[in-house]
Amino acid sequence: MAELRVCALYPDLMNIYADRGNLQLLQRRCEWRGIGFTLRGSGLGEPLDPDAHDLYYIGGGQDRDQALCAEDLATVKRDALHAAAVRGAVIFAVCGGYQLLGHGYEVGGERLPGVGLVDLETVREDGPRLIGNVAIELDGRVLAGFENHGGRTRLGTSATPLGRVLKGHGNDGRSGFEGVRGGPRGNVVGTYLHGPLLPKNAWFADWLTASALGQDPGGLTPLDDALEDAAHAAARRAAGL
User: Fold this and answer.
1) Does the annotation count 7 as an active-site position?
2) What domains are there in the chain, each with its CATH number?
3) pTM score, whole prediction
């Protein structure tokens, strides 16, 4: 039987945007399909095994907690995460976790180190926070959620955005793009969308699961997604689509 092995990084610190909801949805959809599911956490100072998990998840956190995790990511866990990405594991980061995927995050006169998995920089600039319901288009489908970030993320020349902004602000409120998809196999994904994201976008949860298992998303057993479709439709309406 197939098994999805998930590692949540800093689950006690980076979890302020209903991140447990994302993990619970992944678990339930695996269980309904007869796919095994294991979830492990990895906190500050704990080394990672790059071969032990198929999906590594990093959620959002308060500024102080994010700073602690940034240092740990850049030192204790950096090499293992890079090795996991090369192996083909999915690394999925939301909001604060997304800001740490790149080279660094400048905030309040301090530069937090990034883990260097993708080519991006984030800067906390003067100006309003980018807040509200948001929807983006990727691969002909819509991803809908909520954004709330003071950082402006700018992608480098070698980075590809996750999607095109349909409603909302996106990475910086100007570029028209949101999130990032990069890494050696396009398996490193970051986004500002939360709320939590996956219960509102079950199709994207399935894409993450299939990618982590090395399968085609179309090969997953179909589920009765009436409730999930209603949640997605409500998120789209909230964003103005």
Assistant:
1) no
2) 3-239 (3.40.50.880)
3) 0.96
